[in-house]
Amino acid sequence: MTPQTRPWRLAVAGCGAAAFGLHLPLLASHSAFEVTALADRDTERARTAAARFAVPRVAASTKDLLDGADMLVILTGVHGDLIETALDAGTHVFTEKPVGLDITRTRKMADRAGEAGLLLEVGAMRAHDPALHAALAAVPDPAGGWLIKADGVDEAARRRLLPSGFSPYTFAGDPPQTAPAQLEAPHQVSALQILLWQGYHLLTALALAVPGATPAACTLDVNRQSLHALLYGPAAEPYTLVISATAPGRFLEQIHFSGPADAATVDFARPYEPSTTTRVTTAAGERSGFSDPFAAMWQAVSDRLAGQCPADLPTSTALAIRVEDLALALAAICRPGPHPRKD
User: May I ask which residue range the UniProt record assigns to the signal sequence (predicted)?
Assistant: First the structure.
């Protein structure tokens, strides 16, 4: 790419809590970016976001949104059609994770973007998390571990980020997404949704720590809310993955990797709270005060737009494909849990 002499022009689709609380505050103040247009299925929500973040234009259509943009930023719940429209227009794409439920379509879009010389960046924030990388540095060759998430605070946190009068979007209001054809049972589709909607950050951490992880077992509870899985590393090292329903107000997102010489546990900050509250515990003690992985992610996007790619990390698209492959493999072997006994 030629040297950039102006900020990258970003068009943003979707003005939910992630836009108000994370993306737009950072992008509106980042010297490398200029948000030129917004769109949302609720036009009033888009107008409110435009006024708050000094965005000059609310677009009436996707074509209007893409006009003059270098990159489309997709913060909606469903991404595939918007990605393809942007690629048709020759526009780079950043999309929130996951790319979609169907890995076949993800691969096709990734190939299209690569062949056209366009970026398809995926918001795998955890890949840029200094706390996770501190844990991986402490345990470079993990021989087992666990990854746990139970989130009863996300909806309330998103509600606090939105202006008065607006409610958080839910997946229930999104257009239906096509599930992979190899998932034959409804509980398997539910498992895939839990893995990619709630467990994406955990799968990202596992994909980075253990690229050759192989799913061995997966069970979904009878209410299709909690998932328990077992995976093995290349040398049969066991990893437990738990994504659990929990009561409102409760939160736990934790990973633990153990190795021959050390172990590391990461307790991640609650959603939308400062990353400085994330803690990493090793034999050497406890660390906190880590810098913001979200800001690091967007700096990486800026670097990629300028033609720079860190040699020590896979591209975000390659990592997204790893994560979606892993989620699909777990969902394909998922079995429903037993019904509780009534006697």
Answer: 1-28
How distant, in Å, are the alpha carbons of 83, 244, 318 from that of 148?
31, 8, 24
pTM given for the model: 0.94
> Whose structure tokens read 């009033």?
44
Identity of the residue numbered 43: T
Confidence of residue 338 (pLDDT cuts 50, 70, 90): confident
Q: Are residues 113 and 149 in the same domain?
A: no
| Closest to 290 in 3D by CA, of 97, 135, 122 | 135
Confidence of residue 339 (pLDDT cuts 50, 70, 90): low
d(CA 236, CA 142): 11
Could you give the 3-state DSSP secondary structure of residue 255? Answer: strand
Query: Taking the CA atoms of the chain, what radius of gyration do you get in angstroms?
Result: 20
Q: Which amino acid is at 126?
A: R
Is the pLDDT at 29 greater than 60? The verdict is yes
User: What CATH number is given to the structural domain containing 106?
Assistant: 3.40.50.720
CATH number, position 274: 3.30.360.10
Domain boundary among 106, 124, 142: 124
Pair of tokens at residue 23: 């993306």
User: What is the C-alpha separation between 238 and 143, in angstroms, rounded?
Assistant: 7
Which of helix, strand or coil describes residue 125?
helix
Count Cβ neighbours within 10 Å for each residue of 220-237 and write b for 16 or more, e otherwise. bbeebebbbbebbbeeeb
Residue 242 has phi, psi (to 5 degrees) of: -130, 125
pLDDT, tens digit, 9 for 90 and up, residues 31-65: 999 999 999 999 999 999 999 999 999 999 999 99
Strands 33-39 and 71-74: unpaired
